[in-house]
């Protein structure tokens, strides 16, 4: 049984946007150009610059536009200083102009297609940003089902939360407890579950052989959920650590059911070429 994979973030974003209910949860995203970088930094102050085809958070950069008021001149005129900060991995660079920032970013991305996404000020856990992975799978009844919601905390000084970049996995309830009471947490969990299933249904319209997605969701300071990215080859075996073994067994059973893993060996099966 073939499983469709979609590498392009831009293609997945454009497949979701026609659904107005889901579009409300997607941060503004544009193809990388100097003009778009300038406009979006002016609008949002912080943006993420991502490779269109990339995994594990590799190549992701964060750019910020910062300002401060200068002391009044002798004539009483108050001026403003503007500068720019680029963060990549654990490196931080500062620039006095957009042109300097763009020059360094362009040298990093070369000719590869990159995207610019509005930066969301994520909630933090122990002074480190976190997001949530919503795992949604095709169940044995051929229906979309969200099987797991789990958190990922960014490593110190990192701009991404991915495990491959040093991120740490934490349970959903543990991360939202400082912000929500028990009932509010349950409502949010239900909302995210439905969101994962709706995104899967929407993507399936364009990619009919899709069988699983991993939705990366960031919560802002108002606990509003933003869809940061959709992965069509989400990690599964990494969840074998779950104390609820029956939950992991269900996740793995679904993956065997739609052909990601062999029922006899438990090893990965071949899947359809990425779109």
Describe this structure in words.
By secondary structure, this protein is of the alpha+beta class. The protein folds into 2 domains: 9-26 and 121-257, ATP-grasp fold, B domain (D-amino Acid Aminotransferase, Chain A, domain 1, 2-Layer Sandwich); 29-118. The chain contains 7 helices and 12 strands. It has helices spanning 9-16, 20-23, 34-44, 98-109, 172-176, 182-206, 245-257, and strands at residues 29-31, 46-51, 61-69, 80-88, 91-95, 114-118, 124-125, 128-138, 144-153, 168-171, 212-219, 225-231. Strands 1-6-2-3-4-5 form a 6-stranded antiparallel beta sheet, with helices on both faces. Strands 7, 8, 9, 10, 11 and 12 form a 6-stranded antiparallel beta sheet that branches. Strand 8 and strand 9 (144-153) form a beta hairpin. The longest helix is centred in the last third of the chain and has 25 residues, at 182-206. Residues 271-275 have low confidence and may be disordered.
């Amino acid at each position: 049984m073939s499983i469709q994979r979609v590498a392009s973030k831009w293609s997945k974003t454009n497949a979701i946007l026609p659904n107005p209910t889901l579009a409300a949860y997607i941060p503004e995203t544009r193809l990388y150009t100097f003009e778009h970088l300038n406009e979006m930094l002016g609008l949002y102050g912080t943006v993420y610059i991502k490779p269109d085809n990339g995994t594990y958070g590799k190549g992701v950069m964060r750019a910020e536009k910062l300002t401060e008021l200068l002391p009044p001149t002798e004539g009483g005129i108050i001026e403003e200083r503007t500068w720019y900060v680029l963060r990549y991995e654990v490196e931080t660079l500062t620039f006095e102009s957009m042109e300097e920032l763009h020059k360094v970013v362009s040298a990093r991305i070369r000719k590869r297609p990159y995207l610019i996404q509005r930066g969301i000020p994520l909630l933090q856990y122990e002074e480190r940003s976190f997001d949530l992975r919503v795992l949604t799978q095709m169940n044995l009844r051929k229906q979309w089902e969200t099987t797991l919601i789990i958190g990922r905390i960014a490593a110190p000084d990192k701009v991404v939360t991915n495990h491959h970049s040093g991120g740490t996995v934490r349970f959903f309830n543990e991360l939202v407890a400082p912000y929500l009471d028990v009932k509010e947490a349950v409502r949010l969990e239900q909302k995210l579950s439905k969101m994962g299933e709706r995104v899967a249904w929407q993507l399936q319209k364009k990619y009919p052989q899709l069988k699983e997605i991993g939705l990366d969701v960031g919560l802002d300071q108002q606990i509003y959920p933003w869809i940061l990215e959709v992965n069509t080859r989400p990690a599964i075996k990494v969840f074998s650590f779950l104390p609820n073994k029956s939950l992991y067994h269900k996740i793995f059973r679904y993956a065997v059911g739609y052909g990601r893993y062999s029922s006899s060996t438990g090893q990965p099966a071949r899947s359809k070429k990425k779109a």
